[in-house]
């Protein structure tokens, strides 16, 4: 099934976000990250690769991945693909928590997978067509998806380690939100630790243990993502982009950019 290449953010009134994956053109890698929402990737064409807790999952057309709340994951999209992404706020599932603000879904294939995939495709198609009453139909499909999630994919017995990790990533979420809002400023480990009442050593250990990434790497990834957006937009030159993104200068950004992407910022902008 082919879809229009556009970012979709449904109007106010829908309890979810629905859009096409930003890495649909290929040559894309999303570094380790996590979020409070449940996220579902449904591959309609092409393929994607996920890494979750050091386990790799390869998805092809007709398959989907459920990413749990606060589950650290990274995504590889080397080739073009058509992938629907559905983001569901955690609070939608509050009646089904197995612990304090905790619910967990399996990644393993199940007997309802074909129907679940059909519903995801129908949800997106309904939004694109926008026929009379489409909003009511979308909500109907969405709640059918929720029903399958809690009935077929929810785990009622979860290891204590998952629950502990979830709680600590909740704490880290407040910190990473602050980092994303202030990425252009000086954000030393010591200063951020002071703001949130931790010692630098403890905060550094939290990132490494629960997110599987260092504080420095996480901050640099945020800055590189914003730099890429500015470079692609073409509004700012290399030096302006570097300073806007929180780098000390164009040379520092070039080193980080080349280390991660294998090319210089100038090369990326020429091909963007």
In short:
The chain is of the alpha+beta class and 272 residues long. The chain is 45% helix and 17% strand.
State the low-pLDDT regions, or none.
2-9
Tally of contiguous helical segments: 9
Strand segment count:
8
Outline: globular
**Class based on secondary structure composition and strand pairing:** alpha+beta
Task: Provide the succession of SSEs.
Answer: EEEEEEEEHHHHHHHHH
The oligomeric status of these chains comes to single chain
* Percent in helix: 40-55%
Specify the CATH homologous superfamily of the largest domain.
Jelly Rolls
Report the CATH C-level class of the largest domain. Mainly Beta
Roughly what is the average pLDDT, rounded to an integer? 88
CATH topology call of the largest domain: Jelly Rolls
**Total individual domains:** 2
GO molecular function, one term: sequence-specific DNA binding
Protein name: Melibiose operon regulatory protein
Pfam families: AraC_binding, HTH_18
Keywords: DNA-binding, Transcription, Transcription regulation
Describe the structure.
Residues 2-9 have low confidence and may be disordered. A hairpin with a 2-residue loop joins strand 4 and strand 5 (55-60). The protein has two domains: 17-153, Jelly Rolls, CATH 2.60.120; 161-271, Arc Repressor Mutant, subunit A, CATH 1.10.10.60. The chain is 45% helix and 17% strand. The strands form two sheets. The protein has a four-stranded antiparallel beta sheet with strand order 1-8-3-6, with helices on one face. A four-stranded antiparallel beta sheet has the order 2-7-4-5, with no helix packed on it. Helix 1 runs antiparallel to helix 2, helix 3 (160-181) packs across helix 5 (200-211) and helix 4 (189-195) crosses helix 5. With 272 residues, it is of the alpha+beta class. Keywords: DNA-binding, Transcription, Transcription regulation. This is Melibiose operon regulatory protein. Residues 173-271 form the HTH araC/xylS-type domain.
